[in-house]
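Human:
Care to share another protein and its fold?

Assistant:
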Amino acid sequence: MSKKFSQTLAVFMALSAPSAWADSGFVHSSRNVTLAEPCAQSDSCLFSWTMASRMGHILKFTQDRYGKRDRNWTLLGVEFTTRDSPQVWYPDFGAGSNSIIIQLTEGSGRNEKQALFQLAHEVVHLLSPAGPNGVASVLEEGLATYNSLDYLRSNGFQIAPDYISSPRYGRAYRLVTQLSSRPDFSHGIRALRAARQSLARISATDLMQIYPGLPYDEAQALAAPF
């Protein structure tokens, strides 16, 4: 995708050089999602966006909806892996390191849409990390998938639910989509996180208390381990 990608979003940066100005968003995109290229003088940016800068934009998008991430974890950045699927990885640097890295698939490094889809999914797991031995709930994985489509659509990408290739993730996404029709959807996610500190540790009872009128079978399905 060329550096003339035509959608402007605001990003604020603290820059020390007096002649520098803040990058203005998705106006600029490198075909190599790992290479930050200097912008032309006529462009309203300093560098093209990579997965690192886009992670910042996606994180803001997600936190605006579902609350601030747990800052007890140190976010180290984004990397690509030969694994078949993206994930969050918790590197061990010794006691108390609490570090976290987002890993995207190698193939997504050549496909911007796929990379952003994966990144917007994994960013949800940064909100309340479950740790290396944690198991996400259906709600958390469904919300992560919902966030992927929501983010891409909000930034001009054409994407439909059939982009979800896994039946398990598709089912979780549909359950969260049902929940998202409620006016208290985002507020409820924030409340669940505040009550349990993690979307991985919720119960059906928690969901029914936060979302009055939610049927028990839906609450039970959402609270189940993924």
In short: The CA atoms of residues 56 and 175 lie 27 Å apart.
